[in-house]
Fold these 3 entries.
Entry 1:
Amino acid sequence: MNKTAETSWNGVFILAEQFAGRVLPVSFELLRRGRELADTCGTTLSAMIFGHEICRDGLQELIDCGADRVVATEAAELEHFLVEPYAACMLDVVEQYHPDIILAAATTTGRTLMPYVAVKLHAGLTADCTELAIEADSGNLLQIRPAIGGNILATIKTPDHRPQMATVRPHSTRPAERVDGRSGEIVCQAAPADRLAGRVEHLEFIADDSPHHLEDADVVVVVGRGIKKGENVSVGAELAEALDAALGASREVVDRGWLTYPHQIGLSGKTVTPRLYVGLGVSGSIQHLAGMQTSETIVAVNTDADAQIFQVADIGIVGDLFEIAPALTAALRQVKQDNSTTK
């Protein structure tokens, strides 16, 4: 909507997410972002959430971790994400509260819902932001994201329309922490029946049967084009198993069909922030680094001493991954065996 309209736009809203009634961790990452912006603007921070029988303890936790208000819209039809009923309910919340800023995570939900709503509102939207700030003179939201293949950081603003909307990469910041004694307003409302219609029907949910979810893993082993062929993915998979780690991949590995897209890390894949990242034959393109450079400890193995990955690595090993990775795997398995024997 045009900013010059008579409507007064105020406050920061985040889109909290839930699954099976449980508030998802990415919601608390957004609270940290939103709290910083709200404090800078001297305004309130609210969280909107849509679902069915959402856990009340989860709603209170949103307050405890920084929200001044939580608006929960519930209906059986909102149990699973469907863009049309979610968008209709979100538009109602925007009409009710007129937020100046709306933030969502760049998840499947956020990447689908936010563009749909932005079009309905004739508002601007910046996707996949890695940083957010408030412009000192105007109070506009500065939306910062990688552009041109990750070679530059673009700062985008939408000064003429409200609300200002942005999606933020998951795991690009730490979750907000609980603050004892915080109080706030929790508004639970039933979704109007006429907002729940849609052309898409939810049939079933098929769970990911991977032992580790890449985005949430504490340890990640990543294979790059240095593995040379698809059959050699097993070298990384065996090390991942020995480390009790998730298995990731560079874009080229996925493009070649050696691993599937859910394994991809980088600008066009997932962002990870594990305690330990181990890269095998990963060159370290800017696009890949954008998805993993916030890892606490980065170990890289590559035959090319000039590989870009070594610029961000805490431990760099110039050598043949086909010798080093199996040796590491064997050593880890031996340690596990020794530990089980002594118990």
Entry 2:
Amino acid sequence: MAQMDVDEYSEKLEQLRGRKDELEQKINEYEQQAQQLKQKIDKFNRKEEQKKEKIFSMQDELQEQQLDLKDIQTEINQKEKKLTKIKTKQQDLSNEIRAQLNCSAEDLIERGVEKLKQNEISEAKNRIQELKYKLELIGEIDPEVKDEYQQLKQEHDELKEQLQDLKEAMKDSKELIKELDQVMKEKRENSFKEIRDKFDKNFKTLFKGGEADLKRIYGEKKEKIDESQEAIVGVEIKASPPEKKVDNIRSLSGGEKTMTALALICAIINTNPSPFIILDEVEASLDEANTSRFIDILEELAEESQFILITHNRTTMHAADALYGVTMNSGISEVVSLKLEEAEKVSE
């Protein structure tokens, strides 16, 4: 009879060892899956960083274009001053032609000369003498004036074309920034509305009634871009438990503040779920009933996210899919794991 008991125990021990190997194999599989999920998260974060870098790069490019535009405008002003001087020289040349040949430059080109009347000759001679005197004061004609004018005119036309290109590029950049601002505003409005609704729902679940809401706090902008909009400088949390009128959230008790904070955090998680979420003894100050209601919210959120909870609460442990305990054995920490669903099957 004792020999049969030893055989049965040996067989049972072999079964347990086989079960241990299966569990270790599953743990390895889960660790591989976790590594794959981490890689996906890292890839997603890199893409988000690339998008942010692209927006920052576009902003830097816009600033550089604005600086370039300012430099070009300064250069254009300088060229225009030079062009004005050249036009003055051109007028002087026209006066010299009129003084020497009694005709304008256009007349010389067309070869059409108008004859003077007899009573105009004396006046014309006086005018010629006067122009000759002015010509002596002016000095010789610079033969390089025309070439310099053509060169500066060409440079002016090129700069004017570049300026037009920069204006169009600035216009396109401003339109893109405006579109991005509009998209971000719409997403912010939708997310804020969703968080408000979820916050109120979670608050009523935890408190079995009451009301909760979020309100924006507006203030003055440091840099005014759009005068029609005010800057959001903060968010006010309004929470009123059932049968209790509260004007300020500071009037809530410690436990009520904890549950209000949990309701808001869960609303944010529900709006923008993360693959993994770690909570460290967030329900430590809650009693069993409130903890159960909080667990109901987490079970709903667990459809989109995986929760890792650090807790000493038995109610929370009972709702977990797997437990990991840390024990001290001969001065060495050991981790003991237990999957409740499989444990229940074994016990049955």
Entry 3:
Amino acid sequence: MLRRDDIENWSVCGEFTIRKALELIDRSAIGILLVLDADGKLMGTITDGDVRRGLLRGLKLDNVGMEVVNASPITVDVASIRSEVAAIMSDRSIRHLPIVEHDKVVGLWLNESKSDTSRLPAVLMAGGLGTRLGDLTQDTPKPLIDVGGQPILGHIISHLKKAGVENVMITTRYLAEKIETHFGNGEDWGVNIEYIREQDRLGTAGALKRLEGRVHSPFLVMNGDLLTDFNVAEMLSFHEENGAHMTVGVRHYSIRVPFGVVEVDGLKVSGISEKPTFDFFVNAGVYIVSPELLPLIECDRLFDITELMERGLEDGKEIISFPIFEDWLDVGRPEDLDKARSRF
């Protein structure tokens, strides 16, 4: 339980942006921000999940923070005993319970048993040819290209290790022996590594069929050419709290048309928009997949993860999106590689 005298570390009062709320949540490291009025009364709470749901509604990080506040949080009275609190948190699947007395916050119950990333296997897709990088991948597989003194795949593994992931599977095909020699069994990287070597091209999901019967809980799938510090634990929590079969990491992407866009209805002009900007969420190449989806993958043929999404939707499976607002870069083209090297 956190006491009242710690409240400045996990609360905010006055005006703030969504971006500021995220900074405060990260700084407190407990996963929640309490929003108080000038008298210390609880106005609501904000969690990482609240922010990401707001982004999916079209909000931006510079929007007013109150737009993502949960204005009706579950609270407990100061007289509540530990067993009562534990029952509420278990029944409601929540990790935080503000303690109030006369509407004022006097403490916070915190469930430390958040989603355990140590039990989350990670599958890194590293079998592609990397043709968009031209001669750079003629003798070196793209995941081994150096960025800041470490291969791209090394940055990914280091991030997963820091996030608590212990077991990594790497799918290989092109120049597979170089990847396997470089990373070995993972001992030097602080994780356990095994390899799924493809003899033929199986696409971005075909190799996952080999996990059927071997994994019995959700697992992470990630492209082997991404540089991102996305929050692994929050993505796993998001997946579990929403009862999803697949959670797709998505990234906000804007396209500005450099011309006036004319809207027509037959021969008639119905409107015009001068140099409009269109906003989308694009596939970020990061997924959490539950094993219930594995039977939908067909054996020994090219089978991309987008096809797995389509099959899942047709089968009535719950497929949700998780906005990634953290640093993210797909190192697919020479200009992307230059950008990555400038950051490290």
